[in-house]
Design a protein that fits this description.
Radius of gyration: 26 Å
CATH topology of one domain: Beta-galactosidase, Chain A, domain 5
Largest sheet: 9 strands, antiparallel
Oligomer: single chain
Shape: globular
Distance between the termini: 34 Å
Number of strands: 38
Helix content: 10-25%
Strand order of the largest sheet: 6-7-8-9-18-13-12-11-16
């Protein structure tokens, strides 16, 4: 996923992985589920995940970077690491997981044995800079831990993480002087002048602090850090590479032997010398979005002592606890895929608050949280669909903090609206819609409390009525976004209408009938995008006419749609699928057209100019979010057996436990959350409703350990490829004649059992009342 207010200059790149590693972690009865996670999944191809060390929703993502290319070539390296690369630039402390755009890569460090070089060098010319070659054979990748041997230095690097602190342990070869290089220049999605200013300071007690300000995806972002070493400094050299001035006695062309404790500029590099070490060098680093003083406080509060192995064990325990919410019965490869998906779904939004409660808001000012932990990193166009609903189900206490963070961000917004795509508190304005709205509505409708519901609803209404944003003024006036006034008008009309429906749902649950009526009416605006003549959703012009010429195959920037075409977007009415079915001519016509999406013969090269449209099955593009609910729509047309068929097609072809095992960007856990829900047998087609559309399970048994101690079990038998269809479903032993499950039924505990069979059951789910609810029919 990535959508900008401007046309990106990325050049699509193709990388075929020559190696595919099998899942490394087996299941042991006495081990936690962290042992079954393989963070390498998604590090190849277009998954854009990182392999390094982090903890659930942690502030630190300490991970290796193989490249930080310029903005024209950054797409493949959105997480800093590509599995096909053969050299490492170093280890930085902040990364996105699976995003369609790149930034971060802050506080890059590199251990160096021997004479240090000050610039990264060319990966095609080993020894030309400080980067080092490595082999995947030397990597050890686990949840909360990463290790690798740097071949050019023979340094064994180990990384682990806490919530605010990254921990390093470097074992240097005997007889070689040990150095740690700190480079404040590199940044993922780099370009000239991105670093506006940076500073570096060595304190009398040996601590190192600094800050840097960048004009990247979030303009004017400032991040500070604090660093301590387990060994005393023998010397330190602080450089401004922009002016080529060195301090503390480095003798080289153009360098001055001047000694300083601090350096400022736009190209700052520090080299810290430790002499020949008899034991590993440990380094601990904390970050802060606020100040050096706060970074030091974070370090000294969360980073006590020097017991690396204990910190590694704590990170492992944090993952074991987080992943223990679900136990599954499945073979090893499926367990790896499942628990890695659950792991990826629990990386964001990330903690973005210091130990004293300080955080930076979208106004770029410092605020202090009271009674909650502020989180940011919101890929809201993606995560509202499944990742946040999964947290509502499995991590309800965290959902309280997430919702409160969204409301707090709105209160600090100069525009008075909720975040669109934010990280470290700052807004990027990436993608379309106001999809913080369904995150809040879904949490409230499903019983999440502990936040100010009135403030939440006020924030939702404010976001939906902010006329300057994305053609909203025209939308409120006309009931659609005119394409001659605003790009991608069809997609915006449809997404706004869905968001409006979720406002109506929350308002109704709160007893706010006036607000509910207003936004329920707006939720019907999807009809203004539907062209009965062609059977597709299209963009209208100001005069009400559909834009011509029209080709449903066309996608990309400048079209009627956001990261998609008419085949992919004409199904985006999750709030009123029954209404869409009627508009398309009834069940049979609807199913036939939906079949034509999956069965079409499509050349993937058609989407070469739109990087995010990947994972094609016909026109269906699992590698991008607008398609994610399509397979479940058969449930709404009385053909749930078709949902079961399509889900198996997707699960078999779009996920695998290897580095290139994700069909597209994981988008901060959305693609992984889709996998988890689908493996469990149900999916939230319309977040903001308390219903899940039923598919079919992809594990023989799964037990959800719910927040209040209850258990909900999903089971299937016979469970094998010879029995891919659902014959009967029972809930707590009683036949379930409907193809949806209520959230409250899960929370009550019990068992959902699927009797599987070889042939489709074409009778189950036929009745209107058996289908999931829609806005214009079978309302419940």
């Amino acid at each position: 996923m990535v959508k900008f207010p401007f046309k990106p200059a990325f050049a699509p790149a193709a990388l075929a992985l020559a190696l595919s590693l099998a899942a490394s972690a087996g299941h042991a009865a006495d081990a936690g589920h962290a042992a079954e996670v393989d963070p390498r999944i998604g590090t190849g191809g277009d998954g854009h995940t990182f392999p390094g060390a982090t903890v659930p929703f942690g502030m630190i993502q300490l991970s290796p970077d193989t490249a930080m290319p310029d903005f024209k070539h950054a797409y493949k390296w959105a997480a800093g690491y590509q599995y096909g690369d053969t050299s490492l630039l170093g280890f930085s402390h902040t990364h996105f997981s699976g995003s369609g755009h790149s930034d971060l890569g802050d506080v890059l460090v590199m251990p160096v044995a021997g004479e240090p070089k000050l610039d990264p060098g060319d990966p095609a010319q080993p020894g030309s800079g400080y980067r080092s070659r490595f082999s995947h054979d030397s990597e050890k990748v686990e949840a909360g831990y990463y290790a690798v041997t740097l071949s050019d230095y023979q340094v064994r690097a180990e990384l682990t993480a806490g919530r605010r602190v990254g921990w390093h342990r470097y074992s240097f070869p005997a007889g070689q002087p040990a150095h740690l290089l700190l480079d404040l220049r590199p940044s993922i999605y780099d370009y000239p002048g991105k670093v506006l200013w940076s500073s570096l300071r060595v304190h009398p007690d040996g601590a190192v602090t600094g800050c840097r300000q960048t004009r990247g995806w979030a303009p004017g972002r400032e991040l500070c850090f604090a660093m301590r070493f387990s060994q005393p400094l023998a010397a330190r050299h602080l450089y401004d590479r922009e002016t080529d001035v060195a301090y503390k006695g480095f003798k080289g062309p153009g360098h001055q032997p001047e000694d300083r404790d601090a350096q400022q500029g736009r190209a700052i590099v520090g080299v810290f010398d430790f002499g020949q070490l008899k034991q590993p060098l440990q380094v601990k680093v904390a970050i802060s979005p606020v100040s050096e003083a706060n970074a030091l406080a974070n370090l000294d509060t969360d980073g006590k002592g020097w017991d690396f192995d204990a910190r590694r064990a704590e990170a492992r325990a944090a993952w074991d606890q987080a992943l223990s919410v679900v136990d599954i019965d499945a073979p090893k490869t499926e367990r790896t895929s499942f628990y890695t998906s659950l792991y990826h779904a629990m990386l964001s939004p990330t903690l973005s608050m210091d130990v004293n409660g300080d955080y930076r808001g979208p106004d770029n000012a410092v605020h202090r949280a009271q009674g909650f932990e502020f989180h940011s990193t919101w890929s809201l166009w993606d995560v509202y669909r499944a990742q946040q609903p999964l947290m509502v189900l499995l991590q309800p206490q965290r959902s309280v903090d997430f919702v409160r963070s969204l409301i707090a961000a709105r209160e600090a917004s100069p525009f008075g609206i909720l975040p669109v795509w934010a990280y470290q508190g700052l807004e990027t304005w990436c993608m379309i819609g106001y999809h913080a709205v369904p995150v809040i509505a879904d949490a409230y409708v499903k019983g999440i409390r502990g936040f100010d519901a009135k403030a939440g609803l006020d924030a939702m209404v404010a976001s939906a009525t902010y006329a300057p944003y994305g053609g909203l003024g025209e939308y409120m006036q006309r009931g659609y976004v005119p394409i001659d006034k605003e790009p991608e008008g069809a997609s915006k009309t449809l997404e706004y209408a869905y968001d409006d429906w979720t406002i109506a749902q929350m308002a109704k649950a709160m007893g706010r009938g006036d607000v509910a009526a207003t936004f329920a009416k707006r939720a019907g605006n999807w009809r203004n995008a539907y062209d009965a003549k062609t059977g597709f959703m299209r963009a209208r012009k100001t005069d009400g006419a559909f834009r011509e010429p029209f080709n449903p195959d066309v996608a990309g920037y400048g079209s009627d749609y956001t990261e998609g075409n008419a085949w992919q977007y004409s199904w985006y009415v999750p709030q009123d699928v029954a209404g869409l079915i009627a508009a398309m001519g009834g069940d049979q016509a609807f199913v036939g057209k939906l079949d034509s999406v999956f069965d079409a013969k499509v050349d993937p090269k058609q989407f070469a100019h739109v990087e995010d449209i990947t994972g094609l099955i016909g026109w269906y593009a699992h590698g991008n979010e607008p398609s994610h609910h399509l397979a479940y729509l058969y449930d709404y047309a009385g053909a749930p057996w078709q949902t079961q068929k399509r889900l198996k097609q997707i699960m078999d072809s779009q996920y695998a436990p290897r580095p290139d095992g994700l069909a597209g960007n994981d988008d901060l856990g959305q693609m992984s959350a889709w996998y988890v829900f689908t493996a469990l047998g149900f999916y939230p087609v319309a977040p903001g409703s308390d219903e899940y559309a039923i598919g079919r399970p992809f594990v023989a048994k799964a037990t959800l350990h719910l927040h209040d101690g209850k258990r909900f079990t999903v089971s299937a038998a016979p469970f094998d490829d010879a029995h891919p269809y659902v014959g009967e479903v029972t809930l707590n032993g009683k036949p379930l004649d409907r193809v949806f499950l209520r959230h409250g039924e899960i929370l009550a505990g019990g068992e959902l059992h699927f009797r599987m069979q070889a042939q489709p059951n074409r009778n189950w789910g036929q009745a209107a009342e058996a289908r999931p609810a829609s806005m214009s029919a079978y309302a419940r």
